[in-house]
Amino acid sequence: MKNITIIGGGLVGSLLAVLLARRGHKVDVYERRDDPRKAKPWEGRSINLVVSHRGWAALRLAGLEETVRKITVPVYARMTHDPEGRTNQLAYSIDHKANWSVSRGELNNRLLDEAERVPGVTLHFGHRCEDVDLDKATCTFSRKGAEPATSTGEVVLGCDGAFSAVRLKMQFGRFNYSQEYIEHDYKEISFPAGPDGTSLMDPNCLHIWPRRYYMLMGLANGNGSFTGTLFMPHKAVPEAPDAGFDVIRTEEQADRFLRTHFPDAYALIPNMTEQYMRHPQANLVVVRCSPWVHGATAALLGDAAHAIVPFYGEGMNAGFEDCHVLCKQLDKHGDNNWGAVLETYNAERVANGHAIADLSMRNFIEMRDLVADPRFLLRKKIEGHLQAKHPDRWMPLYSQVKFTDIPYVDALREGRRHDRIMEQVLAMPGIAEKWESEEVERKALELLDKA
Questions:
Q1: How far apart are CA 401 and CA 410, in angstroms?
Q2: Domain boundaries in the chain?
Q3: What is the pTM of this model?
């Protein structure tokens, strides 16, 4: 068995510690923050998460499914809110499958509690990784008010996020890397619970206020509140000159903008404008890199390997799947053959990391622009009809990503094939009236055979 150093005690790092310690490894987790379980809840820059199929599979492997299930809320559909406050609900699947909303902070604390209980895991807080010797698997940490510390192990696993110190050291070698900030930033806008502690909106829906160049979304918490997130351009674009974090700067500007464009949300949140002014503005970055490993001594997992935008709700799930795949490779090659383990882990995961980045940007456009588009809604109805009639032949892209373990790269490829097919189906004369007809069904299946 190995002495393993995990850099990063967030969601992926804490879950990975549980998985590896239960295999008999000695695991030291180093986290730059102070222990988040002892801190006040950090309000203002959070995006609620959803646990989907891939995440549950990894949690189940760690024996943590029931522990986490207790702090989640099932979410079965998207509910869009138009500028007049009218709503429309669109189910995620035809068979009532759910994503599970969870607070990032609460989940991280629960995973740290579990990691601390597992023999072989030691948590080190307040340790900022300053240097990594990838060949020797040693790390140097700075500590506030104390001498630097050095870890010695046999494997270093970087779970330290989008600005990973482990990945930075890899970049000095033969390494491909790109970093892209999207044009949108975000702020948290929290929805309160009702006076009796119940939700003021349907807690089993993801609520979206799509406005093409910007949007608000909200996911339920177990206490009746919602964690909302306002996404808006870093700099206003000519097509929407009043919607940008650079032009909405004063309390008066913020109040007018929020009241005008999100009237039903504004009515539910007494301090919506005050939250906008108080909460920090955060940016969104996409990181692509390869390889994710360095010989038999170091590897990247989670955002350190594939930071993505949050619009598919798969960032955490993809990171948890990294952990799951790493454990499968340990099952296959043995817990002492890390050269083969990391080589096959890298071969399986890099392309999927790139694919979920593409899928997440694709879903951003869908959520921001398309969920209120009648043509898009018609496509969803046709796809649901095809899936109900031919479940062995047609599974919508969303279901492939969220409710199966089909590799992301394969799901993306199939999704693009579905795009080509549905373009032709939607071009059929009178499609809005005959979308459930045998003619449309036959056309789609013929195209599926040819595409």
A1: 10
A2: 3-42+50-70+104-179+287-358, 373-450
A3: 0.94
